[in-house]
Amino acid sequence: MANAILPMPPYKWQTKLWDDFIKRNENSSVPHAFLICGQEGFGAEALATAMGQYMLCLSPSEKLVCGKCKACHLLDAGTHPDLMVVTAEEKGKQIKVDQIREISGFVGKTAQQGGYKIIILYPAEDMNTNSANALLKNLEEPAGKTVFILVTKQLSRLLPTIRSRCALINLPVPDAAQALSWLSDVGFDDAAEAQELLSEAGGAPLLVKDWKDSAILEERAELIKGLIDIVDGKTEPMIFAKKWGNQDPLFILGVMLLGIDATLAFQVADKPVGKVYEALVGRMKMASTKVLYAMRDKLCAKKAQLLGPSNLNPAMVVEELTLDWIAAAKPLK
Ligand SMILES: [Zn+2]
Predict the structure, then answer these.
(1) Is the whole-model pTM more than 0.85?
(2) Is the pLDDT of residue 333 over 70?
(3) How far is the CA of 148 from the centre of ligand 1 (A)?
(4) CA of 191 to the centre of ligand 1 (A)
(5) 164-214 pLDDT per residue, tens
(6) Is 12-172 a domain of CATH 3.40.50.720?
(7) Class for domain 215-329, per CATH?
(8) Cα of 302 to ligand 1 centre, how many Å?
(9) In angstroms, what is the span from residue 152 Cα to ligand 1's centroid?
(10) CA distances (Å), 126 to each of 58, 60, 64, 151, 262, in order?
(11) CA of 134 to the centre of ligand 1 (A)
């Protein structure tokens, strides 16, 4: 979570939510707990942070923090004593009950800067049962000017009793024009590429930016080339499997799935193919539609297995997927 003071609202597709939030502040109808629900890549955590910062500023003006008061200086330095951020110690790990107990201590103290005390907790679905029950106690007995801001990607995984104690904020999917204009602001010069990636990211602009900032797009291009080469016999399947065997099998599986979907869309509905999967579809388009559907089912089942509690060996999964892929890509005689 960023230390510096964020733009308010952090993203242009959050303007309406931000206005509603400001209204609540003006009407003194800030609830004890907010619950922001939004998929990855829509800026839910940034929104939570900005809300917390706004409430802590000692003299906010209109819809922004003042940037000058003591609270703002502390926020900018990331050292405001009345702001507590709780998240899993490692990505993908659970939020522990000890961490929730620290919240109780924080709630019990008086605000050092005389305003709100803010607790931001994300991702809320990563609390185990003990943690969730401990949090519930805090939500049931809110103390003074304490505001919880919970963030979740999966509302259904939260206890109904937690959900019912929070004011729900549903983060909207930005419309394509807003998302593309934001992507252009952050340096996407190729509008067609931005559009293709955006649709692949389910409309999540921040996800697209993350992809661009990391090596993932180059890695994917290399993987796609490899998937063509094994079908063409230019690369031995076992060499491919060895090369990609130490990667997250979900990444390889995801690219295979998108490649098959693009091929099926082309075969069945004559849908145009974007740049990313063009070469792959060109290679796969003569394969049997029936076999591709079967491969798709298999990939989905494997994905569910990988996401669930399983002890699959990643290298073996990749090896299996490689052989299935070659079999599925065989052109119809
Ligand atoms: Zn201020």
Answers:
(1) no
(2) no
(3) 20
(4) 38
(5) 999 999 998 899 999 999 999 999 999 988 998 998 888 999 999 999 898
(6) no
(7) mainly alpha
(8) 51
(9) 28
(10) 32, 33, 31, 10, 33
(11) 32
